[in-house]
Amino acid sequence: MSSALLENYGVRDLALSHGAGSYVYCEDGRKYLDFAMGIAVNSLGHCHPRLVEALTAQAGALWHTSNLFRIPASERLAEKLTGLCFADRAFFCNSGAEAVECGFKMMRRYHHAKGNGHRKRIIGLSDSFHGRTLATIAAAANKAHCEGFIDGDTNFDQVAFGDLDALAAAIGEETAGVILEPVQGEGGIRAVDSSYLKHVRELCDENNILLMFDEVQCGVGRTGSFYAHQQLGAEPDILASAKGLGGGFPVGACLAREAVAAHMSAGSHGSTFGGNPLAMSVANAVVDEISNPGFLDQVRANGAYLMQSLRDLQAANPGIIAGVSGLGLMIGVFLIADAGRFITQLREEGLLVVKGGNNSIRLLPALNVRRDEIDQALAHFAQALKKMESKQ
Ligand SMILES: *Cc1c(COP(=O)(O)O)cnc(C)c1O
């Protein structure tokens, strides 16, 4: 179908019209079990009653004021988020890329304030994804994302995922800091291991450079802890959060320790829409739900169950599935068969998932997904595997 839209997203043929919980529907009534959830965005499923209530109440009160005025709901959210992790300060924006971008600026500003303005370079890992702005594509250095947009020296360096020696060797006089996803998402779901992460923290401390975690995808309960790094044994200086934070309403946050945040003085950074009352009302409701006692226990239990069930399917289908990895309800299935074909097959069965890098698919259900919905997804999965086998 032709349209006036930019063709950057390629061909898309499903037009969804409404959703409820873990299900989405097409206008013609077709129903799908949604384990894509807007790419880990609809963290509480579709149209969660608390979120609908928060949004509609705010819509009738005040939409937008700009940051020229105090926004009490943003003060409340900053208080909650910093209370849940290492950070002392929060800046609100509208997307993951903006959250990461704010973190890059904080890194440079920090060194500038210390009289080390030459420390501008930031090191990223292979197979990373940090967004689609010029700085964030430079950081991830994915060739397909950079082509025709940037080349030459971008002030970003890259080292192989998990390679500590390469990271140590890449740190130089001009290095400002390191950015990494504690659990990689777009590149294919893969958690860094805890000993690696601890060593990265040590390397950063020894070299007086900053460590930033991009938890845009893996944060806000997705992996079974509020932020993923909290179960990996090392803390960052800066953290980017977005996707699941608004449960479907666009919102991002850049969180930082006081020592770093202190240099972001009045006028140093800003956003027109960032932290507006609509976004803040919804994000407060999301964070309240996810910080309810027992909520994350459920994510961990359901994640472990889904992961083990997928590993059983892998054992039964060694010719199709190469591996299963992830943490909590952020699960990657690496395929031997073509991932695109398998995604189509799953969709025909009634299950929506997301493609990941390195020929993988990503399962990103709502964090409050029910056990019977997981069983339903597994039944679709098993059925799709059977059909893949018969077509091979
Ligand atoms: C999605 C994503 C981003 C970019 O977020 P946008 O809201 O699309 O700008 C950045 N980092 C990670 C890890 C992501 O998954």
Whole-number average pLDDT? Answer: 97
Structural class of the helix and strand makeup? alpha/beta
How many structural domains are formed by the residues? Answer: 2
What's the architecture of the largest domain, going by CATH? 3-Layer(aba) Sandwich
- Label the overall shape: globular
Would you identify the regions where 5 or more consecutive residues have pLDDT less than 50? none
User: Gyration radius, to the nearest Å?
Assistant: 21 Å
Percent of sequence in beta strands: 15-25%
The bound ligands are: pyridoxal-5'-phosphate
CATH superfamily of the largest domain: Type I PLP-dependent aspartate aminotransferase-like (Major domain)
Report a brief summary of the structure.
By secondary structure, the chain is an alpha/beta fold. The protein has helices spanning 37-40, 49-59, 72-84, 96-113, 134-140, 143-146, 164-170, 194-206, 258-261, 277-290, 295-316, 339-349, 371-391; strands at residues 16-20, 23-26, 31-34, 89-93, 121-125, 156-159, 175-180, 183-184, 190-191, 210-214, 238-241, 252-256, 321-327, 330-335, 351-352, 354-356, 360-363.
